[in-house]
Write a structure and sequence with these properties.
Length: 193
Amino acid sequence: MYQPTNIEQWRPVVGYEGLYEISNKGRVLSLRYNRMLKPWKPPRGGLQVHLTKNKTRKMNQIHRMVYSAFIGEIPDEHVVRHLNDNPEDNRPENLITGTPQDNTNDMLRNSGHYRSKTTACPRNHPLVEGNLVLGQLKRGHRSCLSCDRARIRVKRNPSLGTLKDESDRIFRKLHDDGNISDAAYMSWRPAKQ
């Protein structure tokens, strides 16, 4: 059982015992060459290193190796999540398993997801209470209700005009019906066509 500590601890990398060790600080040691491996940071995701076994070289994610060595087996269909959403913080106490949806919810909660900072849809409608698709919101996504409804209506009846015109009409109606606050409505400026 792992107990958090400031002292660096080393354990064998699961599946590479006798070849590599990993520390509770996320550093990887090659036992054959007695040197630290330099991690690589891809554009998306956590730090990785190449490990070789039986002349086969494979890329391995450091956070998964730390979790396996210090905490235990990663359940099927689960990912290893960073509680603070910092992919370079691979301390065991910062790692937990969960579903991919749990990982997305973490990013939204910690404002690490680009969509969590979006204040308006591409048609410039504010993403505020009353203008969000509830089904999407329950899954951690924010979608414009005005555009969603307009998309359906224009598809069924093309004579209504453009998607932009119809979504603007629906946004005004949501405000008139009291679903959108006056402040949110006043902040809205229809985009120039």
